Amino acid sequence: MNTVGKSAFVEAVGQASDDAEGYLDFFKGQITESHLGKELLEKVELTEDNASRLEEFSKEWQDANDKWNAMWGVKIEQTKDGKHYVAGIGLSMEDTEEGKLSQFLVAANRIAFIDPANGNETPMFVAQGNQIFMNDVFLKRLTAPTITSGGNPPAFSLTSDGKLTAKNADISGRVNANAGTLNNVTVNENCTIKGMLEATQVRGDFVKAVSKSFPKQAGTWGNTETPNGTVTVTISDDHNFDRQIIIPPIIFNGIAYSDPGSGNNPGGTRYTGYGFEVRKNGVLIASRETKGAIPGSYSAVIDMPSGRGSVTLEFKVFHKGNQWAGNITDCTVIVTKKAASGISIR
C-alpha cells in the first residue's frame, strides 16, 4: 500500500484463505448487522407508489459499555410499480467485539470512479451486477480461485486445482513437470533423457555407421587393381553411456592362376596370397591370411566403456608373394549403445 500517496510502497503481511465466496458471505453478515448497514438498508414505508424520499442522517451515541459510536450518511429511497429502491452512502465508527471498526459503505446498483481529466469517457472503476470492471490494474499480490482471459472460448485459464490451459505459451525460463503429453514438439538444442526412452518410430543416429573401401594398387596382370593399404576408424569417447563397436564380416581372397613354367620350372597352378591385420589403439588384436580363392574373413564386437577414452581401429590388408591379384569387401564399422533389454541369448 502507499501511505498518503507520497511514500514508497510498503508491504502489509497477512494470512488469508483463498475462499473468496466464503469471505463475501462473511462480510455480508458483518455489514448488514452493523448500525450503518441497517440504517442504509432500512426501508421506509412511502405513502404512495412512484414516491421518492431523500434523507441525510447523522448520529452519535454512547452504548451500554460507555463506548462511543457515530455515523453519517445520505440515502435516496423510491418506489415504482410496488418495488422499493434505495441508494446511499455512509461513514461510521462503531465498537465491535473485535474493537473499533470504521466503515465506508455504498448501497447502489452501480458504483463508478470517473476521472474528469479524460472527459468522463472511460471510468477507471465500475461495479455492477455482482461484477467489478477495471480499465488498468496494478496489484502487489493476487489470490484468485480461477483466472480466465477474455475471448470465446478463453485463450488462457488457471483453476484452483492447478490446471493451466493456454493456446500459446512462450517460456524463457525452466519448466519442471512430472507427467504429460506433448504433440508436434521440436527440441532445438541438447536433450538429456536419464530414464527409459520408448519410441514407435525413430529418425536419427541412435546407431552410427561408417564404411570405406580399402586402398588399391595396380595388379600384376593387365589393368587389374589389387587391394593393399590401411583403413583407419576413430570412435570418440563423447557419450556418457557404454557402447559397442560392431564390425560386420570383412571378406578377402586371392586367386588361382596358371604358371606356364620355363627352364627347370615345370609350371602349374599357382595362388596369390593376402594377409589381414587389425590393431586397436596400436595393439594387434587380429591377424588373418589366405591363399587363392579360399576366402578369409574378420568380424568382431568390441566393447567401448564410457570414460575410457577414444578408440582407434586400423584395418590393414597386404599381398604376400610376388604376384598381386585379389579382392576384399569394404570396411564397415557400426557403433551402438550397449544394451540387452528385450533380448535373450542361450
From TrEMBL:
Coiled coil: none annotated. Residues 54-181 form the Tip attachment protein J central straight fiber domain. Residues 210-345 form the Tip attachment protein J C-terminal receptor binding domain. InterPro entries: GpJ_C, GpJ_CSF, Viral_Tip_Attach_Protein. PANTHER family: FELS-1 PROPHAGE HOST SPECIFICITY PROTEIN-RELATED, GIFSY-2 PROPHAGE HOST SPECIFICITY PROTEIN J, PHAGE LAMBDA. This is Tail component of prophage CP-933K. It comes from Escherichia coli.
